[in-house]
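Lab manual, section 2.4: Encoding a predicted structure.

Procedure: take the sequence of the chain (98 residues), apply the prediction step described in section 2.3, and record the output as structure tokens. A sample record is shown.
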Amino acid sequence: MDLRRAGAVALTVFSYIARVCAILLGLLTVLLCFPGVAVRLNIMGLVMDLTQALPDVIAGYGLITSPFGGVFRFDFALAMVFLLVVDYAAQRAARALR
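Recorded output:
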């Protein structure tokens, strides 16, 4: 396997990982809009860990109360969009290397 093909495979794998993380972050953002679901799933520790993992510039930015009693995490939504952009860029780069 030549170096270009190996780079394309590595970028494709990285792209899929970024896409899965973005989907999970989007799902978590939606789940936090419903407080009963978030409490039943006991995901508050995960949310706090993810908040600490985000850069300080966006961590805790845009906490919007949802009409269902939960909270919409705009910082998680921004991170999700960033991961989707990274996914797109990695897919394009992988196609260019093939």
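Check your result against the sample. Strands lie at 63-65, 71-73.
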